[in-house]
Here is the input.
Amino acid sequence: MIKLILVTGSGLLGKDMISVLRRDFGEVVGTYNSRQKEGAIHLDVTDRDGTIKSIAGLSPDVIVHTAAQANVDYCEDHRSEAMGVNADGTKNIVDAARIAGSKVVYISTDFVFDGERGMYREDDPVNPISVYALSKLLGEYYVKDLSGYVIARTSVVYGDARQNFVSWVRDSIEKGQNINVFTDQYNSPTFSVDCAEAVASLIKHGASGIYHTAGGERISRYDCARKIARYYGLDESFIQPATTEMLSQKARRPADSSLDVTKVGTYHKMHNVMDGLKMMEDLRCS
Here is the structure.
């Protein structure tokens, strides 16, 4: 029986993860680092001693590790910080979990793949092409040292928050701003609550191993932006097609990092973009 779950990180996915897990399991504790959150505890995953002490004091049954430095271009310019948070910080969580006897669910990324072909399965070879991707993959390797681990890879997470792909597209068009969106980058956009519900189901069923908990649709950034505009009844002409070559990005991105979600489907059905947007708006209005 699960008595306590600890969720690291206070971003969009961390926030929704706490809400979903509280509904399904009861006592869930969140964490924050720089910005204090009501009801959450302070946890800096780069502070090894502090991390071990905090987790030992709580002794959670499960740790869902969402905390990360996820700004891909920032990571490219700040390698040591990216490695410190995403790789070494995850090792600190793993070591603390081993001492406390906790299971770990590690939120990883589609970017562990190089994007040469897309629709990656869980056992496909990984090949990170950016500092961010490498730091997250190293985190995966540390987590694999634990028994009963879960690695949940996701992709382009969006939800009811100010800064994500959906809000950027919607808000820009509503302001009458043209936006350049890639036609040659494909992935699996994921509604944050959908990902959280998949993780909750994996925990509930005692699953272990690697799972792709991403959106159930392979789509280009450009086509995704058009669907977002269509869903909100906005003018698609503000969305300008662009290629990776046209717009410089500091860090390399996989051309096609879409994920095959067949395996997780045993426990939870991942939703496509339009269904995810509907879920998001339904939850907002409820």
Remarks:
- The first strand starts at residue 5 and ends at 8.
- The first helix runs from residue 12 to 25.
- Residues 4 and 285 are 29 Å apart (CA to CA).
- The chain has nine helices and 13 strands.
